[in-house]
Amino acid sequence: MATATLDAPLADVPVPGGARGLRVPHRPQAVPAARREFVDDVTERLSRARRHRTGASETAETVEDVVAEAAVVVSELLGNAVRHAQELPEGGILLRWQVRGDVVVVEITDGGGPTRVRPARPTAFSSHGRGLRIVGVLARDWGVREGPDGRRTVWASLDGTAARSASNG
Q1: How far apart are alpha carbons 7 and 24 in whole angstroms?
Q2: Which residue in 17, 99, 108, 164 could disulfide with 45, CB within 3.0 to 4.6 Å?
Q3: Is residue 129 scored above 80 in pLDDT?
């Protein structure tokens, strides 16, 4: 169930195929509430999927790794949409996610913006510009789809391998 942040509520959006969707207000204050809703739902979905698989070798740490990485990516992409893009014509930003086996796929759709979505080249002392580089490190894959109506969707798939690689390296 979607929760509210200040005077801007999150709204569930019907999404086919077992995915979940939230309309997030185009405000920085809405990002933490959307992230919490996402984390709670993905944790439950991954745990349920793990319980239903026979012979699953996945551990609780694996679920935590995937959720932690996905939460960072959702925060980065929602923050970028709020800072750099317009809201959708119907209002807000659309956050969608789906659990496919051990992989979480997230999509953020906004009304587009004046620039291309690409990793910046920040200087050592820049306070911004590292978000998409972080997404690139955490995500198994990520990309951008531009719609003919100006909508832009940034997506990422995550499986926890960044955390497991770091702990094994």
Answers
A1: 12
A2: 99
A3: no
Which of helix, strand or coil describes residue 145? strand
Q: In CATH, what number is assigned to the domain containing residue 35?
A: 3.30.565.10
Q: Which amino acid is at 59?
A: T
Assign 24 to helix, strand or coil.
strand
For β-strands 20-24 and 11-13, DSSP reports them as: antiparallel
Tokens standing for residue 49: 């999927």
Who's near 126: CB < 8 A, 6+ residues apart?
none
Interatomic CA distance for residues 79 and 73, integer angstroms: 10
Domain count, the chain: 1
- Among 126, 104, 106, 113, smallest CA distance to 82 is for 113
Q: What is the pLDDT of residues 3-18, one digit of tens each?
A: 444 455 899 998 888 8
* pLDDT band, residue 132 (cuts 50/70/90): confident
Whole-model pTM: value is 0.82
Query: What 3-state class would DSSP assign to 81?
Result: helix
User: Which residue range is the domain that position 20 belongs to?
Assistant: 4-168
Q: Which residues contact 22 (CB under 8 A, 6 or more apart)?
A: 2, 10, 11, 12, 13, 34, 37, 38, 94, 95, 96
